[in-house]
What we know:
Largest sheet: 7 strands, mixed
Mean pLDDT: 89
Helix content: 10-25%
Low-confidence stretches: none
Shape: elongated
Number of strands: 7
Structural class: alpha+beta
Distance between the termini: 19 Å
Order of helices and strands: HEHEEEHEEE
Amino acid sequence: MTDPVRDAIVATLAxxxxxxxxxxxxxxxxxxxxxxxxxxxxxxxxxxxxxRGWFVSLTSEVYxxxxxxxxxxxxxxxxxxxxxxxxxxxxELAMADLARAVVRAFRADPTLDGAVSRLSDSHAGEGxxxxxxxxxxxxxxxxxxxxxxxxLSLITERFLQE
Length: 162
């Protein structure tokens, strides 16, 4: 079953230069080799292979009563990026830059090409953050490889068909 909002989020991510591989869901393999294959990426500039991939997961969806005559759904999405650690290549800085590029990509298209009515601020009220937010940048072990992980949050609001 296809989800136009998920598809639009994936397309936005895929449009970020040098993002790596983008998956529409968290991918898993029973062995490290399989995970590395799922999140492996070849740098088009250098033709070198690296671990660099992203995935999107729906973490919650809240249904609101009608406003302006239409009911809405507020969905929170978790966007996770993984990048192999390369101290000589300043990979921590590269991952931070890439996470910021993702934030800018969502800011540039607040309706996800019409898939949502808007990027929302959740239930927090006026002055709350809107658009993709970087929640955490941290080193982790992934498939036996020291990796940077970026965790972002995105909240979308869409009108429900009645």
